């Protein structure tokens, strides 16, 4: 018999294995659902891993209150369609202090509304394992992270002292208060994600497809004016341009690209000729050198 | 400003064609290893750059970083692409493994860039454990170094069968063929015993790209392939599909009473609907009724696939067991020999209990015998009492319950395990099973008709093990003695195991090193267990300084039988009392390895009974213990009467 698994089949099997390992070894896992394309793939794999049962854990969305409105609509629609248990957490302290990306900058906003909010949610529910959709090809500190990534009771990552991770034998043992972040998509690349979405016909937020949208040029990026909270600076105008997003986060921090790719095939075609990385559209990675590692040490995903 | 991507070039059909071609690509996982500064990270940077995997924004950031942290003058320092941690960039070294991805028209690659420093060997092992091939880099000016040998031995132990010997920095020796030939001869001679199926030597300059993606004119004397050509074509098929069927059960999927599926990843072989399978540990047989997958049942599945099996019969299978081919079964044993690579600052100690984890199984395990340590320079087998950080050795292990496995040489998935520290939960070692030990196959448990319950009922008591721990001179023996007299007076059957007394007989061959202390406690715990099994109330009075061994003793005993008694007397008070004159001698350096002086005492955190001795008389504390025992027996009687049997 001369049969071998394809590249995507191998990646899919590895991710499913990781999901099951967590379900079998932890008492209270949760999946972080960020509504983007990687989350869509993660959710699809979770459904496959436990079929015919539903995934034996809830999905948690940490809502910064600055996500694109289409993301929130898509989130609620998916929760209803797939029937999973959706938890939404907002850092109410941040809301009370009106923390926002325009007045406080991306660093403070992300720290308060994402990193701190995530820590609050994990503590509130007492989750001992949390799935995230991060991939190693995204960013160079992620390229260094284990699939089962240990966090101490303060949710901090210690990059200089990671547990060895041998074969597919994962050390899932933790003391009370400690937790593990689990990354089933560690070995997937951006291209793999798109190929898999195409192959499996996985629903994604429409913002990934090109469409005329109201955008403002600011700090070298095209920012979509998603609601009235975005105030125009002198000299700025709102233009309708044919754009799409390669990655999704908080709308004031996520740059659009001009593109006419309005089908999955066209998106893959565009990717093959791309000259810039996907995180180029993310303001938070550029604030300072090593900024992702710093955030991760503080408990960011 | 550049927001504009090239317009989507290809029409939909050609994208579909492209995707179909991508689908057929195979995947090669490899690592780069070798000594510090041999150019591992630079090589990966070069591979990524020459295969067009670096985007414009990443290149701009790299140029910025090169000016700040770079070590290559005005040129781009490719090492900064992979050395992603701040500490790595500041120190200019690789600390942990980085995973990178690239593709050529023929293959997809996942590459693990691993650290060269000896202290980070465990991170190198992490990268090697999932790789099919290793690129061993050698600095042409340095030749084969200690780390070259260590990494090659670990790669071989972890099952890597294909090596690329990259003789790097060949530009710095004037592209000299004789230097290359001599290094290749040295390495091939050294690697004779490592069982590699192929060793491909290539002269290379990672920094300037010679022989990386295409043959270099500067090494006209070299006629072999470039690195990329070799990586694209080398055949590393382990043919896991050809091996007997192995399915480690990972998760029992039971959404309702009508469905019971065993989920897992096929480790080797193939399985079809209707095939007979056997449960490895029990030998019970059944047939595959369904191979369940999202989107429809499968008729057949092969090694590497993550599936869910439904069996024809209601057989007992849980996580940690394996479904296997009836014709070629794995071994099931609780004693076996294995290669061990040690990862922890605290040395491996024979006799200490660790948690052993295979892909899905987890049991307590002890190294019963450290047969030898392997010298990484010349493979010499050296006698050793412990394995230190980054050392490699051959051990005999004994597990609390049998596990199912194949020798690692036959099956890389079912022959591997890790060892976990019971207290810190750190991954402290990796093991590759060699073979089961004969005695495990031949010694079976005798099932006896008279049981513990019967024996203790006859004595009209419940067995217990009171485990006294505390510093020398804390009062353990005095309190234990009074306690036993009280029990004896009330008609209980007891026995005291005293540290000093046992060292005159059973343990007279043991000293006071950490390794011997561990063995000392292991033997006493086993004896206490036998006595409890005989129905006795056992009082163990041992310093027992390490929490790992006390926990091991606790887990040996039946539910509720182990009672840890912490005899808590401050060090200063013990040294003041000094009933045997030992503290004076230890503090003057005359006695070595004395607990509390130059050997640690790990105080219990959750002892059942905590006796703070200052200001309390031994008599009073012995009464407290007796009271505690009476309370327990009353509570259990109520439970027995109430619960009924």
From TrEMBL, chain A:
Where in this protein does the record put region Disordered?
279-301
Its EC number is: 2.7.7.4
Copy the pathway line from the protein's UniProt record: Sulfur metabolism; hydrogen sulfide biosynthesis; sulfite from sulfate: step 1/3
Enzyme class per UniProt = transferase
Per UniProt, which keywords does this protein have? ATP-binding, Nucleotide-binding, Nucleotidyltransferase, Transferase
Q: Which residues form the signal peptide?
A: none
A GO molecular-function term, please? sulfate adenylyltransferase (ATP) activity
Q: Name one Pfam family in it.
A: PAPS_reduct
Q: Which residues form the Phosphoadenosine phosphosulphate reductase domain?
A: 29-255
**Catalysed reactions, as listed in the record:** sulfate + ATP + H(+) = adenosine 5'-phosphosulfate + diphosphate
What the protein does? With CysN forms the ATP sulfurylase (ATPS) that catalyzes the adenylation of sulfate producing adenosine 5'-phosphosulfate (APS) and diphosphate, the first enzymatic step in sulfur assimilation pathway. APS synthesis involves the formation of a high-energy phosphoric-sulfuric acid anhydride bond driven by GTP hydrolysis by CysN coupled to ATP hydrolysis by CysD.
Return the similarity comment. Answer: Belongs to the PAPS reductase family. CysD subfamily.
Q: Which PANTHER family match?
A: SULFATE ADENYLYLTRANSFERASE SUBUNIT 2
Q: How does it assemble?
A: Heterodimer composed of CysD, the smaller subunit, and CysN.
Which protein are we looking at? Sulfate adenylyltransferase subunit 2
Report the source organism: Mesorhizobium captivum
């Amino acid at each position: 018999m001369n049969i071998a698994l394809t590249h995507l089949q191998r990646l899919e099997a590895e991710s499913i294995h990781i999901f099951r390992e967590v379900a079998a070894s932890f008492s209270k896992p949760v999946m972080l659902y960020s509504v983007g394309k990687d989350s869509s793939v993660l959710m699809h794999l979770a459904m496959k891993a436990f079929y015919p049962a539903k995934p034996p854990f809830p999905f948690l969305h940490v809502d910064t209150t600055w996500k694109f409105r289409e993301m929130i609509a898509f989130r609620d629609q998916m929760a209803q369609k797939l029937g999973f248990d959706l938890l939404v957490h907002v850092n109410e302290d941040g809301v009370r202090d009106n923390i926002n990306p325009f007045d406080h900058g991306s660093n403070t906003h992300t720290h308060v509304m994402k990193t701190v909010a995530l820590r609050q949610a994990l503590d509130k529910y007492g989750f001992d394992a949390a799935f995230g959709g991060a991939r190693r090809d995204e960013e160079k500190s992620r390229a260094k992270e284990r699939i089962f990534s240990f966090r101490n009771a303060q949710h901090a990552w210690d990059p200089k002292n990671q547990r060895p991770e041998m074969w597919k034998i994962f050390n899932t043992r933790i003391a009370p208060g400690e937790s593990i972040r689990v990354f089933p998509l560690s070995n997937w690349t951006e291209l793999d994600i798109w190929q898999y979405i195409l192959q499996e016909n996985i629903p994604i937020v429409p913002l990934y497809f090109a469409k005329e949208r109201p955008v403002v040029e600011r700090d070298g990026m095209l920012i979509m004016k998603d609601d009235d909270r975005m105030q125009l600076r002198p000299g700025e105008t709102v233009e309708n341009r044919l754009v799409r997003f390669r990655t999704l986060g908080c709308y004031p921090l996520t740059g659009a690209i001009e593109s006419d790719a309005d089908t999955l095939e066209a998106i893959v075609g565009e990717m093959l000729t791309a000259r810039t990385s996907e995180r180029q559209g993310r303001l938070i990675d550029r604030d300072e050198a090593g900024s992702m590692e710093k955030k991760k040490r503080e408990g960011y995903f | 400003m550049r927001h504009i991507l090239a317009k989507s070039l290809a029409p939909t059909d050609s994208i579909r064609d492209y995707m179909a071609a991508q689908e057929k690509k195979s995947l090669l996982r490899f690592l780069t290893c070798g000594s510090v500064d041999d150019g591992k990270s630079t090589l990966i940077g070069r591979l990524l750059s020459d295969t067009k995997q670096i985007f414009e924004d990443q290149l701009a950031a790299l140029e910025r970083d090169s000016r700040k942290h770079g070590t290559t003058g005005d040129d781009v320092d490719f090492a900064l692409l992979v050395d992603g941690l701040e500490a790595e960039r500041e120190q200019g070294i690789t600390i942990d493994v980085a995973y990178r991805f690239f593709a050529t028209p023929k293959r997809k690659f996942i590459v693990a860039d691993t650290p060269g420093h000896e202290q980070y060997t465990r991170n190198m092992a992490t990268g090697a454990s999932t790789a099919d091939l290793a690129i061993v880099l050698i600095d042409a000016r340095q030749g084969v170094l200690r780390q070259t040998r260590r990494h090659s031995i670990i790669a071989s132990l972890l099952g890597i069968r294909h090596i690329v010997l990259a003789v790097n920095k060949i530009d710095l020796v004037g592209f000299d063929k004789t230097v290359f030939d001599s290094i290749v001869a040295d390495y091939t001679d050294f690697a004779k015993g490592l069982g590699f199926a192929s060793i491909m030597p290539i002269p290379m300059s990672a920094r300037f790209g010679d022989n990386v993606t295409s043959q270099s004119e500067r090494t006209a004397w070299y006629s072999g392939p470039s690195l990329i050509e070799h990586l694209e074509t080398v055949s590393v098929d382990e043919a896991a599909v050809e091996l007997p069927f192995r399915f480690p059960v990972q998760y029992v999927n039971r959404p309702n009473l009508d469905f019971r599926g065993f989920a897992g990843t096929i480790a080797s072989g193939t399985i079809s609907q209707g095939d007979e399978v056997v449960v490895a540990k029990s030998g019970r047989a059944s047939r595959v009724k369904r191979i369940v997958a999202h989107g429809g049942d499968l008729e057949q599945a092969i090694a590497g696939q993550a599936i869910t099996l439904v069996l024809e019969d209601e057989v007992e299978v849980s996580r940690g067991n394996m479904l296997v081919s009836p014709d070629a079964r794995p071994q099931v044993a609780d004693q076996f020999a294995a290669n061990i690579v040690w990862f922890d600052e605290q040395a491996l100690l024979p006799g200490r209990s660790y948690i052993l984890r295979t892909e899905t199984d987890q049991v307590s395990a002890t190294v019963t015998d450290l047969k030898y340590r392997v010298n990484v320079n010349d493979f010499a087998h050296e006698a050793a009492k412990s394995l230190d950080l980054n050392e490699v050795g051959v051990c005999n292990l004994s597990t609390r319950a049998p596990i199912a496995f194949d020798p690692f040489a036959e099956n890389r998935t079912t022959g591997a395990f890790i060892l976990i520290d019971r207290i810190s939960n750190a991954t402290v070692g990796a093991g590759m099973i060699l073979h089961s030990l004969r005695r495990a196959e031949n010694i079976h448990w005798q099932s006896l008709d008279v049981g513990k319950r019967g024996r203790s009922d006859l004595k009209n008591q419940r067995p217990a093990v009171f485990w006294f721990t505390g510093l020398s001179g804390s009062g353990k023996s005095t309190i234990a003695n009074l306690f036993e007299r009280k029990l004896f007076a009330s008609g209980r059957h007891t026995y005291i195991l005293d540290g000093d007394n046992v060292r005159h007989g059973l343990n007279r061959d043991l000293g006071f090193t950490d390794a011997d202390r561990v063995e000392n406690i292991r033997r006493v715990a086993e004896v206490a267990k036998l006595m409890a099994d005989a129905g006795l109330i056992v009082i163990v009075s041992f310093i027992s300084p390490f929490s790992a061994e006390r926990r091991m003793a606790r887990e040996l005993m039946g539910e509720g039988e182990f009672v840890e008694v912490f005899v808590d007397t401050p060090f200063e008070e013990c040294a003041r009392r000094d009933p045997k004159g030992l503290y004076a001698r230890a503090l003057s350096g005359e006695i070595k390895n004395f607990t509390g002086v130059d050997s640690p005492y790990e105080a219990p955190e959750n002892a059942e009974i905590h006796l703070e001795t200052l200001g309390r008389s031994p008599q009073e504390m012995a009464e407290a213990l007796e009271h505690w025992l009476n309370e327990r027996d009353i509570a259990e009687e109520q439970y027995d009467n109430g619960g009924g049997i």
